[in-house]
Amino acid sequence: MFKIIDISMTIEDGMTVYKNKEEKKPKIYNSSNFQTGRTHETRIDLDCHGGTHIDAPLHMLEDGATIETIGLEQLVGTCRVLDLTHVGMDGIGSGDLKPHNLQRGEWILLKTQNSFTEAFDPNFIFVNEDGARHLIEAGIRGVGIDSLGIERSQPEYTTHRPLFRNGIIIAEGLRLKDVAPGTYFMVIAPLKLTGIDGAPARAFLIGNA
Questions:
Q1: In what helix (H) or strand (E) does residue 79 lie, and over which residues does it extend?
Q2: Is there a contact between 7 and 188 (Cβ–Cβ < 8 Å)?
């Protein structure tokens, strides 16, 4: 037997978005109902970096690749959830990552204090420049985090840009509160979009029941 653990944010009116910016919140509205037509239909206006999502390199690199270049085979497979709930406001650095003995080619998901609040915290836990260097040196394939941004107020984007330049995939907006550290089978399925800088995704883990 196995257990499926949904690690996606629910897309809904008033959901938490980066810096609580109103323009980033989804707009969900009824376009047809049984009083105005013969069917019930809904439309949605959604920021591609809202909720659980995959960043494409174009998000931070002027000549970066777009979302369709990240194949599903790169987003499905074994991952490790790391317990970094002890990390403070200075962010995740190499000293926090070294004890986990990261392996070349693996996916890691970072469970932090962010997992325990639904509100946007301007002091959210992030991966700092030192931590990004460690991820690159370890040769990981992808990294996911339980915040809406993998970095926080870094003017030159010194986490995103180096990760992208080294072919590391970034997933943001995961929900890891009820996930124990350990190894899982991971599926992240972004919407099939093309030519843009990111895509909302449904993400889940499969573990033993």
A1: strand 76-83
A2: no
